[in-house]
Amino acid sequence: MDIIISGLLLGGTYALIAMGLNLQYGVARIMNLANGEMLVLGGLAAFWLFVFAGIDPFFTLLLVAPVAFAGNWLIYRFLMAPLVRRSKNQGALDVDSILATFGLSFALVGIMVSVHGEYFTYSFLADPLSILGTTVAVNRLMAFIAAVCIAGALYCWLNLTYAGTAVRAVSVNAEAAGLVGINVAKISALAFALGGAVTAAGGTLISTFITLDASIGVVFTMKALIIIIMGGIGDIRGAIIAALILGLVETAVATLIDPGLTLVAAYVIFLLVLLLRPQGMFGRRTT
Amino acid sequence: MGRRTFMKRLMEGATALGIVSFLAASAIAGDTIKFGVVAHKTGPLAGGEAVTHTPNIEMWVKQVNARGGLNVDGGKKLIEIVEYDDKTNPGEHIKAVQRLATQDEVDFMLSPYGTGFNVAAAPIYAKYGFPLIAVSAITNKIEELSKRFPNMFFTLGNTTGFVEGVRDTLITMRDSGTIGNKIAMVNVADAFGIELADTARPILAEAGFEIVYDKSYPLGTPDISPVIKGAKAAKPDAFVAWSYPPDTFALTEQAIIEDLDVKVFYTAVATAFPAYSGKFGNKIEGNLGAGGVNPDTPAMQNYRKEHKELTGKVPDYWASATYYASLQILEQAIEAVGTVDRSATVDYIKNNSFDTVIGTISFDENNNSDRYWSVGQWRDGVFRAVADTGMGDSVPVVEKSGW
Hints:
The complex is a heterodimer of chains A (287) and B (403). Chain A has 287 residues and is an all-alpha fold.
C-alpha cells in the first residue's frame, strides 16, 4: 500500500514534468530541449517569491502560468515559427528545433545562474499526512492533486472543445488539418505556449519538495522525453499513464529491491516499450 | 589598384596599427597580477561552488585591491581574475586551464571545486608550475599525488580522516549510552558517496557497529521516501548519509516527515550550507554533517562578517573558511617571495607556516595540512565543529532529540 500511494504521487510528479513537452512535441512538433529550463524557471519564480516576499507557491502558480504562456508564445512566434516555415519535412524540423532549443537552454541556464547561482530550496507544507496507513508529505500530495486537475482540464479541453479538437487534429496530421480549414500555425503556437505554461506550473509545484538549481533542467528534459516516448507522442493520456507506471515501478523497485536500481528499472521499461511497441503506448504507428 | 581599394587598405592598416599599439601599451603597463580560475558556473557542481568558492574569491580580491594590491616587484599590483566556465566537465576544465596558462598567461591559478577536478587538473597545473592549494578535495591518495605533483597541497583532509570523524562521534555517543550500535547508512551513487561508503563499512564494523540498512540511491532521485522508510523499518539508533546537496535536503525533509526517531542524524555535503538552516529552521537542531567550524575565534567572526558585507552572501560552515585560508596562504607566499615566481612560491608554501582565518597552517612532508574540522553539529543556528583532526577546539557532541 505504501508503494502504491508513494508510487502514484511520484507518478503525478512525473506527469507534471512530461505533459508540457507532450503538447510541444506532439502538436507543435518542436522537440523542445529547453523544456527542463522552463520547469526550473517556474521553480525559481516560486523560490524567489516565497523566500523574499513570503508569497505562497500556489499563488505564484497563478502568476507563473500566464507569464510562461506569453513567454512561450513569443518564443514560438519569433524563434520556432521561422524554422517550421522553412523546413521541408518533419526530420528537418526536428533537427532545427533541437539545435535551436538546445541553444535556448544554454541561454536560460546562463540567465538563471546570473540571477541565483546556488541551490533553491525552501520548506512549504513539508508536513506529514497519513493516508491509508502511509505517511506522505502534504506538498507532494498537493502537487499530485494539481497534476490530476491539470491533466483532467487538459483532457477535457482537448476532447470536448472545438479548439481542443483542432489541436488533436494538428497532432494527428498537420497537413490534413490545414486542408479542413484549421489555422495550423496559430494552433501550433497555442499548443507550444500551453505546453510551456504547464511545464512552468509543474516546476512551481515540484519546487516545493525537490531541490532545484539553475543547471538541473537537463535531467528533467531527459525524464520528460522518456515519458512521452513511452506514452506515445501526441496523446495526453499516454504521457499520464506512462508517468504513473514509471512512478509506481520506481517506487516498487526502491522499496522491494534496492533504491540504487531505480534508474535501471526505468530504462528497462523504456527499452521494453521501444522494442515491443515503438510508437509508444498510445502512439500511432507512423505510415 | 583603384582609389577606393587604396583608401580601404589604408584604413585597415591604420586600424591594425592602432589595435597593436593599444595592446602593446597595455601589455607594457602590466600593473595587475593575473589569477586564473576555472569555475563550475553551470552543471551539477555549480550550486556548491557558488556557495563555497566564488564569494571567497570576490571578497579576497576586494580586500586586497582595497589596500592597493599585492606587494610584488617593489610596488603594488592589483589582482585581476580571469574566469572561465567548465560546465562541470573535466574535459572542458582542462581546456580552460590550458587556455588560461597559454593564451591569457595568468600568473597564478586558484584551485577548483571538487575532488575529481583537483585530481584531474593536477597534471596540467604541475606542467605550468602553478601552486595548487586544493581545498574541496578529499582523497586517500594524498601521498601518491604530492609525490607526483610536488606543487599540489591539501587542506581538507583525506577520506579516512573524514570517515573517522564520524566514527569517533558515533563512539562518543555510544559510550555515553545515548545510542546503541545499529547504524542505517546510505550513500549517493556517485564517486564521492561510493568511496565514503566503501571506506566506512570496515571502519564502522571494526568499531563494533552493526549496519542494519545499507543502500545507495542514484544522484538526483526525485523521491527519497523509500530510502527513509526502509531505514526507519530497520530500527536504527543512528542514521548516516554520504550525500550530495540535493539529497541532503531531500533526506532531511523526508526524515522530518517520517519522524525518523534517531539520536544521531548525519548528512554529508550541504549540511553546512546557509540554505540548509534557511530551509529547515530549528528543526535541524542537533543534526550532524560534514565540516563545522569554531565560530568563536575573532578571526572567524571577522571573516564571516566581512564575507556578508562584501559579497552579500553568508559563508558556509565548512570549506568556505578553508578556501579563504588558501587564498590567504597564496597571498602571503607571493608577497614573501616578492616577485611572480611560481616555483619559489611553491617552495615558500612548502617550508613556511601561515596565519589564516582557520588558525596556523603549515604543510608536512606530503604537502598535507593535517588540521581540519571533520564533523559539525547545528546548535542554535550555528554549525559548530564536534570532531576534528589537529585543530583541538571541537565542542562535545549532543544527542538529537526529535524534529
